[in-house]
Write a structure and sequence with these properties.
The chain is mainly β. The chain is 10% helix and 32% strand. Strands 3, 4, 5, 7, 8, 11, 17, 20, 21, 22 and 23 form an eleven-stranded mixed beta sheet that branches. Strands 12, 13, 14, 15, 16 and 24 form a six-stranded antiparallel beta sheet that branches. The chain starts with 47 loop residues before the first strand and ends with a strand.
C-alpha cells in the first residue's frame, strides 16, 4: 500500500475517553456528553454514546451486538438491512466474490439478508464485538468453531423454516432471510445474553475531525480480481460516503435507502487459497498497510488487530457508521481515489 498515494500525514488528536471537556465534541469514558462548556445552549444533551458509532443518544446502549453474514452475489442484490449496520466488513470468500459481515448494535434491522454461510475469519471478526453470530451454512473450518460452543450463534442449517425464512422472489442459496424478532427468539432459545457492556471504539472529536488532512478522496474505486468494482462517493453536505457495486448504488431492498457510512477503511492482509473449493485463509492478526478515508480525505496509515477488531493504528474513526474493506496484499494498484 505504500504505492497507493503519497499522503500528507496530519497529527490527529484522538479521543481518549477521558473526563468532561467540550461537551458537544467529546465522547467520555462513561459514555456521557458534557454540555457544561457548550456555546450553543439549544444543542441536545445526550445521556449515552453508542459504542460502535460514537454517536450520542438518550436510549439504552447496553444491548448485545448481532453479526450477520450477508450474501453479496449479484443475484442477492439488493440486500436487506445493511443500512442499519454500525460496521460492515467486506471480505473475499470463494470465486473472487466478497461477503459482508454486518454488525448491528445502535440500530437493529427489521429483516436482514440474504443470509449466507460462515467462514472462520468472519467468526473471528464477530468475536471482537462479543456479538451473536448469524449465518446459514458453514465451511469445515467454520463448523469446527461453531460446534466447539465457544461462540453464541444461530445457523440456518438448524433453523431453516423456523427462524430463517426462504423468500419466494429469489432462489437458493440467495433467499434466506431472518427478522430481528426471530433473532431475539433464537437468543432466548439458546440462552444467549441479550445485553452487554460493549467496549467503545476510539473516535475523533468533532473539532479534531475538522483538522484531518490528506489526499483528496471524494471518489474511491476498489477493483477486485474477479472484475467486481466497489465504489464510494462522498457527499460534502452529509459528510458521508455512498457505496456502489459496479456503478450501481447499494441500497436497502425494502426501503431503497442508500447505504452510507462516515468511515471507509481499506486494509491490506495476506490471503491464501487453502482448498479446491477456493476457500481462503486470511491473516487478520499481523497488521499492515491501510487507508483511512473520512471527511473527503484519505490518510495512508496502518491497521492493527485490537482484541479481535480491525482498527486504525495511528488514527481513529469519526463518529458514524464504518465500512471496512479487507483486500489481498498487492492490490495497491487496484485502489484509485480522486
Amino acid at each position: 500500500m505504500k504505492k497507493w498515494y503519497i499522503i500528507l500525514m496530519a497529527m490527529i488528536t484522538v479521543l481518549t475517553l477521558s473526563a468532561c471537556k467540550d461537551a458537544t465534541d467529546k465522547v467520555l469514558e462513561d459514555g456521557k456528553v458534557d454540555k457544561a462548556e457548550a456555546t450553543d445552549s439549544k444543542k441536545e444533551e445526550y445521556s449515552s454514546v453508542y459504542p460502535l458509532t460514537g454517536l450520542g443518544t438518550n436510549e439504552e446502549v447496553d444491548h448485545r451486538a448481532v453479526s450477520v453474514m450477508v450474501n453479496n452475489h449479484p443475484k442477492a442484490r439488493s440486500q436487506s438491512g445493511l443500512h442499519k449496520a454500525d460496521i460492515v466488513y467486506e471480505v473475499l470468500a470463494e470465486g473472487e466474490l466478497t461477503r459482508f459481515l454486518a454488525i448491528f448494535q445502535s440500530e437493529m434491522p427489521e429483516v436482514v439478508g440474504p443470509v449466507r454461510s460462515a467462514r472462520d475469519y468472519y467468526i473471528e471478526l464477530s468475536r471482537g464485538y462479543h456479538s451473536l453470530f448469524v449465518a446459514h451454512g458453514f465451511s469445515p473450518e467454520a463448523k469446527e468453531i461453531l460446534d466447539s460452543g465457544t461462540i453464541d450463534h444461530l445457523n440456518g442449517m438448524d433453523y431453516d423454516g423456523v427462524l430463517f425464512n426462504r423468500a419466494d422472489f429469489r432462489k437458493a442459496p440467495h433467499n434466506s432471510y431472518i427478522t430481528y424478532e426471530n433473532i431475539q427468539k433464537g437468543m432466548e432459545k439458546i440462552g444467549a445474553e441479550q445485553s452487554d457492556d460493549l467496549d467503545m471504539l476510539s473516535f475523533l472529536t468533532s473539532k479534531s475531525a475538522k483538522t484531518i488532512e490528506g489526499a483528496s478522496a471524494k471518489e474511491i474505486m476498489i477493483s477486485y480480481p474477479g472484475g467486481e468494482t466497489v465504489g464510494f462517493t462522498y457527499s460534502n453536505k452529509k459528510k458521508t460516503y455512498a457505496r456502489s457495486s459496479n456503478n450501481e448504488p447499494t441500497i436497502d431492498r425494502e426501503t431503497e435507502t442508500p447505504i452510507t457510512v462516515s468511515n471507509v477503511f481499506i486494509v491490506e492482509a495476506a490471503h491464501r487459497v487453502i482448498d479446491d473449493a477456493g476457500r481462503r485463509e486470511i491473516n487478520l492478526t499481523s497488521g499492515g498497510d491501510a487507508i483511512l478515508i473520512q471527511n473527503g480525505v484519505a490518510q495512508n496509515i496502518s491497521w492493527k488487530n485490537e482484541n479481535g477488531r480491525i482498527v486504525p493504528d495511528g488514527g481513529a474513526f469519526v463518529p458514524g457508521k464504518t465500512w471496512i474493506n479487507i483486500v489481498p496484499s498487492g492490490m495497491e494498484d487496484s485502489v484509485k481515489m480522486q
